[in-house]
Automatic annotation (TrEMBL):
This is Nitrogen permease regulator 2-like protein. GO terms for biological process: cellular response to amino acid starvation; negative regulation of TORC1 signaling; positive regulation of autophagy. InterPro entries: NPR2-like. GO terms for molecular function: GTPase activator activity. Pfam families: NPR2 (PF06218). Belongs to the NPR2 family. It comes from the Eukaryota. GO terms for cellular component: GATOR1 complex; vacuolar membrane. It comes from Bactrocera latifrons. The gene is Nprl2.
Length: 210
């Protein structure tokens, strides 16, 4: 895959854009599947089938950030299981909200956003079966995903109102660590300080030169 010089790489501390958001769930009869995806078919069925064991994982990996880098994409997810014997056919509803980036893109800045949006969806599912109920909920979810991708890629922040729930999301840029300062690296005066009034210097410098 060719990448232009304007693209971003993980090792230089810069970020790539969100390419796709999808919701995967474990259906009672169809098994693991993508139930909502924006843009549609960005993650193909063949690619999803190859990685779905990491999208809907074993229970001990639930409510943990999982990142899968394979087949030229990087998927950041937060798998969730909501148990309820009365509401769900298999006694639990398993789903995973995922952000998709290019495989080379730095993605750590998206992890808190994925977790926070997942927690909003958990709350909405527990209150009104927003994810599992048949009806127009998937269309509402699709509009939410469209707004999230557009706003976060352009403005790094978004606010979405859905019913009684207001969703606030913001990307916090993770700056690279500063370079290591070695013992021989000391500040040097480039100008003659003798003609500079002492009270013009900061307190530390005043103590050094006085």
């Amino acid at each position: 895959m060719q990448v232009s010089t304007n693209d971003y790489y993980e090792d230089n501390g810069r970020e790539g854009q969100i390419r796709c958001i999808f919701l995967s769930e474990f259906h009672a009869t169809a098994g693991c599947k993508i139930s909502c995806q924006v843009p549609a078919d960005y993650v193909s069925k063949e690619v999803f089938d190859a990685i779905n064991v990491y999208i809907i994982p074993k229970p001990h990996l639930q409510r943990c950030i999982l990142t899968v880098n394979a087949l030229d994409i990087k998927v950041v997810g937060y798998p969730v299981g909501i148990e309820n014997q009365q509401k769900y056919a298999r006694n639990a509803f398993l789903f995973n909200l995922c952000f998709v980036c290019d495989s080379w893109a730095r993605s750590v800045q998206y992890e808190p956003v994925v977790k926070k949006l997942s927690e909003y969806l958990i709350m909405m599912e527990e209150e009104s079966c927003f994810l599992s109920k048949e009806g127009d909920h998937k269309l509402k979810l699709q509009k939410i995903f469209e707004t999230v991708i557009k706003d976060l890629n352009e403005k790094k922040v978004t606010t979405i109102v859905e019913g009684d729930t207001t969703i606030y999301l913001k990307i916090v840029i993770h700056k690279p660590d500063p370079p290591v300062v070695k013992d021989h690296m000391v500040p040097l005066l480039l100008l003659d300080f003798k003609n500079t009034p002492l009270d013009k210097w900061d307190l530390t410098t005043q103590q050094v030169i006085s």
